[in-house]
Write a structure and sequence with these properties.
Layout: E1 3-9, E2 13-20, E3 26-33, E4 39-40, H1 42-55, E5 62-69, E6 75-77, E7 87-88, H2 96-106, H3 109-116, H4 125-135, H5 137-142, E8 145-147, H6 149-158, E9 162-164, H7 165-168, E10 174-175, E11 180-181, H8 183-190, E12 198-200, E13 205-208, E14 214-216, E15 219-220, H9 221-229, E16 235-240, E17 244-247, E18 262-265, E19 271-277, H10 281-291, H11 295-304, E20 313-315, E21 332-334, H12 343-367, E22 374-378, H13 385-395, E23 399-401, H14 407-421, E24 435-437, H15 443-457
Parallel strand pairs: 1-5, 5-14, 5-15, 9-12, 16-22, 22-23
Antiparallel strand pairs: 1-2, 2-3, 4-7, 6-8, 10-11, 13-14, 16-17, 17-19, 18-19, 20-21, 23-24
This protein binds adenosine-5'-diphosphate and 5-O-phosphono-D-xylulose (5SP).
């Protein structure tokens, strides 16, 4: 039995699954936490990867491995391959001003959407490089190479610096439509031409570990989730991890000049239009902390309050927000009365507020032409019973919850199995036990949320 390993080096932790390459059956797994923060020392990702592999019982018998990682993070290496400063992560908003400058310099959002498929916000690597050039010119001058979190780990494993279309498409200096880097945009932002990872094809092998394990190209975590879910035409994934993401696979590249939908590439040679919020699972972590309860009790409380929480609305911009682009926003509670000042109302408002942000994302994806036959709910917060039961009423559609699993890591394992097989298409691993959740849509929830949200958005930036 050939085994493959998949790695999810995401914001909060590193997860490893080891699966049978033919059936996809998970035979063992491990995980290790990442330090908190919006900057990270890449050495900590490497240490967490080693710890997660050890917890998974090591790589004995593993023929191939793939690494998926949090998108966009800026990893700067000097000419000897040493990390110059902690990586700035996708959820670090200090480059919001740089994003606005760069948008104007190229001629506005339309010009960026045409050039790269996306309008850059603070998450995009290109804006972080501009920030570095402006604020840490010495570090910028020493930067010989720029890469992304998953590229860094693949490089540590194989000694070869490569990336893939999916992760490259989140940099802001690679064009999904042209399938090529845009060195002109990198130079415009950074004033220099650092070396970049070679972009491999979807099923190419990057190299081998010292122990001889083949390593696939890897990809961004959302692209890997699409692979792990086997996302097809008409499927939309809603992922509730540290970020909230809504995405679909598409045959055509997207170019949304409103900036709501990022026109990424996927990990199969197609495209992955995606909406990302900064506030998802951690909104529930924060609500649970404020109420002094665990997630199970938060879920029970949320389900004990009525839909709409009697008018209590949480606009959950606890980390600022990316979609809509309000990096300096804060969270706010609206409709607080004596009668709604209860743990149950707050718990319900937290779940509904988080889901409303994603429902707005789903609308944006539909406005760009996405077909929605099925909504698949994944990510840490999809483990919450309240989230699963309330989601259909907020999203206005039934939702499908795949069996609990690590779909990003599984997607990376699918990529590894694909690279190993040399087949024209990735393997499709069946995952029995899908749960279907339905509920009457409650439009009032989104209407009240929209009122509160628009009050925040109407304030001058
Ligand atoms: N039962 C649960 N209810 C709500 N949130 C949960 C539950 N279990 C885990 N989480 C949250 O999910 C998040 C981790 O999700 P995950 O998808 O692994 O994130 P990431 O990939 O961004 O690191 C954490 O914030 C965690 O507290
Ligand atoms: O920035 C994005 C997508 O554009 C995020 O989705 C990151 O890729 C981080 O993902 P998680 O750690 O939340 O899975």
């Amino acid at each position: 039995m050939a085994l493959v390993a998949g790695v999810d080096s995401s914001t909060q932790s590193c997860k490893v699954v080891i699966a049978d390459a033919d059936s996809g059956r998970i035979v063992r797994s491990g995980r290790a936490p990442h330090p908190d923060g919006t900057e990270a020392d890449p050495a900590d990702w490497w240490a967490a990867l080693q710890a997660a592999i050890a917890e998974a019982g090591g790589l004995d018998g593993v023929a191939a491995l793939g690494v998926a990682g949090q998108q966009h993070g800026m990893v700067c290496l000097d000419e000897d391959g040493r990390v110059i400063r902690p990586a700035l992560l996708w959820n670090d908003t200090r480059s919001a001003g740089a994003a606005r400058e760069l948008t104007a310099e190229l001629g506005g959002p339309q010009a960026w959407a045409k050039a790269t498929g996306s309008v850059p916000v603070a998450s995009f690597t290109v804006t972080k490089l501009r920030w570095l050039a402006d604020h840490e010119p010495d570090a910028a001058a020493r930067t010989a190479t720029v890469c992304l979190p998953h590229d860094y780990l693949t490089w540590r494993l194989t000694g070869r610096l490569v990336t893939d279309r999916g992760d490259a498409s989140g940099t802001g200096y690679w064009s999904p439509a042209e399938n090529a880097y845009r060195p002109d945009l990198l130079r415009m932002a950074f004033g220099r031409d650092p070396a970049l990872p070679e972009v491999l094809g979807p099923a190419e092998i990057a190299g081998r570990t010292a122990e001889g394990v083949a390593v696939s190209a890897g990809t961004g975590d959302n692209m890997a989730a699409a692979l792990g879910l086997g996302l097809g035409e008409g499927d939309v994934a809603v992922s509730l991890g540290t970020s909230g993401t809504v995405f679909a696979v598409s045959a055509e590249p997207a170019a949304d000049a409103t900036g709501a939908v990022a026109g990424f590439a996927d990990a199969t040679g197609r495209y992955l239009p995606l909406v990302c919020t900064l506030n998802a699972a951690r909104v529930l972590d924060a609500a649970a902390r404020m109420l002094g309860v665990d997630h199970a009790e938060l879920s029970r409380l949320a389900l004990s309050a009525p839909p709409g929480a009697d008018g209590l609305v949480l606009v959950p911009y606890l980390e600022g927000e990316r979609t809509p682009d309000r990096p300096d926003a804060t969270g706010s509670l609206h409709g607080l009365r004596l009668s709604t000042s209860t743990p149950a109302h707050l718990a319900r408002a937290a779940v509904e507020g988080m889901l409303c942000g994603l429902a707005d994302g789903l609308d944006a994806l539909v406005a760009q032409g996405a077909r929605v036959d099925r909504v698949l709910l994944i990510g840490g917060a999809s483990r919450s019973e309240a989230v699963r039961r309330i989601a259909p009423s907020v999203l206005g559609r039934p939702v499908v919850v795949p069996p609990a699993g690590e779909y990003v890591a599984e997607g990376a394992a699918v990529q590894a199995a694909w690279a190993l097989s040399g087949a024209p298409e990735p393997p499709r691993w069946e995952r029995p036990g899908v749960a279907h959740h339905e509920a009457e849509p409650v439009p009032a929830i989104r209407e009240r949320y929209a009122e509160a949200r628009d009050r925040i958005l109407s304030r001058p930036v």
